[in-house]
Amino acid sequence: MRRRSVWRVVLFVLGCYAWATGALAHAPQAPMVEAVEAVGMTVADVERSVGFYSNVLSFEKVSDVEVIGSAYEQLQGVFGLRMRVVRMRLGEECIELTEFLAPRGRPMPVDSRSHDRWFQHIALIVRDMDRAYRWLRQHKVEHASSGPQRLPDWNPNAGGIQAFYFKDPDGHHLEILQFPLGKGDPRWQDKTDRLFLGIDHTAIVVGDTKASLKFYRDTLGLKVVGESENYGIEQEHLNNVFGTRLRITTLRAAKGPGIEFLEYLTPRDGRPMPTAARANDLMHWQTTLVTRDITSVAHRLWAGKFALVSPALVTLAEEQLGFTAGLLVHDPDGHAMQVIER
Q1: Domain check: are 215 and 333 in the same one?
Q2: pLDDT grade, residue 29 (50/70/90)?
Q3: Were 336 and a residue from 74, 140, 169, 286 both cysteine, which residue would form a disulfide, CB within 3.0 to 4.6 Å?
Q4: In terms of domains, do 62 and 81 share one?
Q5: pLDDT one-digit tens code per residue, 124-168
Q6: Pairwise CA distance, residues 342 & 340, whole Å
Q7: What is the per-residue pLDDT across 266-302, written as a single tens digit (0 to 9) for each?
Q8: pLDDT band (50, 70, 90) for residue 123
Q9: Residue 148 main-chain phi, psi, to 5 deg
Q10: Helices assigned H by DSSP within the chain
Q11: Does 29 fall in a domain?
Q12: What pTM does this model have?
């Protein structure tokens, strides 16, 4: 009897252990990425870009630093660099403008199209689309759309949204966006006298939504918050691509702007990211993602065999850029994500 009682205790303990480990395995895991902190782009002349983003789009300068050294070379994958990085804020969101003082990279391809897979933009929310478009025309911005478009009401997820694509002085695509009541973050409907309110998302062209979800959702922990399929003459004129049919998937972290996939179901002739593209080229964008455990994120990225730009996890002796450790990685289409830990 005593032996039977001992076995009962052993089986009970083993059962509790199995239940506990099983519960832990299925318990919600903390997301690897806690925030999308900033969206950055490489520029040819940072003073010119600061003037454009402040005077035309109402951004405010937050910081202006110049960095040099082997740690930054490893982080960006560019030998012998000297970078000037200016952070600017619109509302609650930030961009980073980076000029490579050395070495200079390649210019933006003059024939870039909205369905090429190096395409990326930021979507700026405006209070009044008509007024914003007049303001941009007054400042002679380069059109990327034929004009502002109102997406049709038959599309339940996008109907009533007004949008317009244009370019900054280096040819980076930008978008102004106005949500109707009931769509978008409720804060975009707050009463204000400001014309430009903040950044809702950054959009990237992807070749395969499923492959991109493995990177952003399954590896980094961002959550899918919206899906839509857009087509029609309005979408064609917005993207300036004939025959556009888009699968759109939006993901978000707990804080910061969203990351929006644009998968072109038609046409399918968008060009891939050039294999020789580097961080000092003007086509380069990089989105900064914040984590509390960059070592775990690095292990996940290595295990997933994603294309790391940084040869290893980079530790910075000074916090000139606002963080102590980071790495640069390419997603399946070559878009650059800078993962940092403060």
Answers
A1: no
A2: low
A3: 286
A4: yes
A5: 999 999 999 999 999 999 999 999 999 999 999 999 999 999 999
A6: 7
A7: 999 999 999 999 999 999 999 999 999 999 999 999 9
A8: very high
A9: -60, 140
A10: 2-26, 46-55, 70-76, 129-138, 209-213, 233-239, 294-303
A11: no
A12: 0.90
Identity at 223, one-letter amino acid code: K
Count of domains in the chain? 2
Residue owning tokens 């029609």: 232
Q: Which of 241, 266, 291 is the last residue of a domain?
A: 266
173 and 66, same domain (yes or no): no
Spatial contact of 336 and 284, defined as CB atoms under 8 Å apart: yes
Q: Is residue 13 part of a domain?
A: no
Residue 82 and residue 180 in one domain: no
Range of the domain at 294: 35-105+273-341
Total length of the chain: 342
What are all long-range contacts of 61-70, with beta carbons under 8 Å and residues at least 24 apart? 61/86, 61/87, 61/88, 62/87, 62/88, 62/89, 62/94, 63/87, 63/322, 65/320, 65/321, 66/101, 67/320, 67/321
User: Is the confidence at residue 6, as pLDDT, over 80?
Assistant: no
